Amino acid sequence: MEREPSICALVAASDFNAEHFAACQADGVFDYVIAVDAGFAHLESVGCTPDLALGDFDSLGYVPRCKKVARHPVHKDKSDLELALDRAMNRDFTDLVVYGALGGRLDHTVANLQLLARYAEAGANVTAIGLDSAARYIVGPDVYDLPLHDAGTVSVFAMTPEAHGVIERGMEYSIDDETLGNRTTRGLSNELIGQEAAIAVEAGTLLVFHPL
Fold it and tell me: What is the CATH number of domain 7-131?
């Protein structure tokens, strides 16, 4: 029996798509919101009080007041976002929507993209929201239906050494039951053409960048 969908939004300190978050919040999309350190300031800017604020708060500069606060030491082996994702997984949410994890320092972005793959492979639907695009993980066997757009760029990368049985449909270029490795540009810059489009993978983990 499938679990009822439950969605946790995590808001970290990097580039924040305030418009997208506010629209989702207004529509009641999120069941739980976690502010990750300076992500608390992002949430304040859109008038949202998180259910939990977590971090060492060195970036925020103060310990916030909200429904619940989990303060961690500055010297630790996990990033604040990793600790927040652990909390979200322990609460058994089906979907994790992460803001503020893309942009800013490149090393932070790479670390976050690697990190999020682990939680996708542990069973959650994981999406990172950027300023104009989303990064969605697909763990095989699975199919992901892309949002319908007249145009826009879609890029697909293997997050495991190989991803097998990769299919791309409804875009300018088709991929039919291929193996993608993580040392190639194959999968970069496909184009939406106003049709229903989907990406599938039989085995392995894919990271899909697509327009919001």
Answer: 3.40.50.10240
